[in-house]
Design brief:
By secondary structure, this protein is of the alpha+beta class. Helix content is 34%, strand content 25%. Strands 2, 3, 4, 5, 6, 9, 10 and 13 form an 8-stranded mixed beta sheet that branches. The longest helix has 23 residues.
C-alpha cells in the first residue's frame, strides 16, 4: 500500500454508501471561497514562496497552488514563481483534452522541466528547486498532488487530515516504522526533502489516485512549512473553519510570526460554501 493510500485507509474502510454521496452525481450547487496570503516572516528579508489560483468562469471550479523555493542568490524565488506560472498558464488547456488527474501530472512535469531548464541556463541558479502542492476543485470533486513538503489538509466535520504526502527524510523513516510520530515532530532532519521540482530532469509527483467528492462545509488548507512548523494541525483546522477564508489566512500567518516566523509563510484556504461570497483576491488568474 502506498503512503497516500495508507493515509486514507480509514476513509476507504468505510462502507461505500457513507464514503461518497455518489461519484456519478457530485454536488452541483456550491461555491469555493478562497483566501491567499504569503509573508516573508520575521527573520528572512526575502520571500521565496509563491502562491497562485486559477478561477474558472463558472466560479465553481478552481485550482490553488503553493510553491516554496530553495536556492541561493534568490534562485528559490525564481523557481517557485516559475512553477506557479506554469500551472496558471497550462492547466486549463490540459483540462480541455484530459481528465483532471492527467492535467495535474502534466503541469507538475512541465513545472519541473521549466525550473530545471532555467536552473541550467545560469550558473548562479544551478540546483535551484521548489516544492509544489496543488488542489483542483472541478465539478464537485477535489483532485490534488504534491512534490516536496508543502502540504494540503482537509478539515471536515471537526476533523483534519493531511492529504499530501511529505517527501522528506523524516517521512520516509516514519513510514518505515523506524521512528515515532513524536520523534518525527522534532527531528533535526524533518525539513530535509527527498525530491523537489526542478532539481533534476525528472521528479516524483504524488497525485491522488481517487478524486474526493467535496461536501458543503469542507475546508482545504494548502501551506508551506513556514506555517505548519509553528502552528499545529488542529489549530490550522480550527482557525480555518471558524473564519472567512481570507481572514483565516491572516490569522494563521500572524500566529506563525508571533511564534518566531523564522521561515517564509504561505497559506491558501478554500472553503466549500453554498452562497457566493468572495472578496477579490490576488494573485488569481481567471479562465
Amino acid at each position: 500500500m502506498t503512503p497516500m493510500k495508507k493515509l486514507w485507509s480509514a476513509w476507504f474502510d468505510k462502507p461505500k454508501a457513507s464514503r461518497y454521496r455518489n461519484l456519478a452525481e457530485p454536488i452541483a450547487d456550491y461555491f469555493p471561497e478562497i483566501g491567499l496570503l504569503s509573508d516573508a516572516g520575521v527573520v528572512r528579508s526575502s520571500n521565496q514562496d509563491h502562491i497562485g489560483c486559477i478561477r474558472f468562469a463558472n466560479d465553481r471550479n478552481l485550482v490553488a497552488v503553493i510553491a516554496d523555493g530553495m536556492g541561493g542568490h534568490q534562485s528559490g524565488e525564481i523557481a517557485s514563481r516559475i512553477a506557479v506560472e506554469v500551472f496558471q498558464k497550462n492547466f486549463s488547456g490540459y483540462l480541455r483534452n484530459a481528465d483532471c488527474r492527467q492535467a495535474l501530472l502534466k503541469c507538475f512535469a512541465d513545472a519541473n522541466a521549466e525550473v530545471f531548464r532555467s536552473g541550467q541556463a545560469l550558473a548562479e541558479n544551478h540546483g535551484m528547486g521548489t516544492t509544489l502542492v496543488a488542489l483542483a476543485v472541478i465539478d464537485g470533486l477535489a483532485y490534488y498532488g504534491n512534490t516536496g513538503d508543502s502540504r494540503l489538509y482537509l478539515c471536515r466535520s471537526g476533523q483534519v487530515r493531511q492529504l499530501s504526502q511529505d517527501h522528506t527524510v523524516v517521512a520516509e523513516l516514519l513510514n518505515a516504522g523506524l521512528i515515532s510520530a513524536e520523534s518525527a515532530a522534532n527531528h533535526p532532519d524533518r525539513n530535509v526533502i527527498t525530491c523537489a521540482i526542478g532539481t533534476r530532469q525528472t521528479t516524483k509527483a504524488d497525485i491522488a489516485d481517487v478524486a474526493l467528492p467535496i461536501e458543503i462545509g469542507d475546508c482545504f488548507v494548502l501551506c508551506s512549512d513556514g506555517l505548519y512548523d509553528l502552528v499545529g494541525d488542529g489549530e490550522i483546522a480550527e482557525i480555518s473553519a471558524a473564519r472567512p477564508a481570507q481572514e483565516a489566512c491572516k490569522v494563521l500567518v500572524d500566529l506563525a510570526n508571533q511564534r518566531g516566523g523564522y521561515d517564509n509563510i504561505s497559506v491558501a484556504v478554500v472553503k466549500i460554501t453554498e452562497q457566493k461570497t468572495q472578496a477579490a483576491n490576488s494573485p488569481i488568474t481567471r479562465v
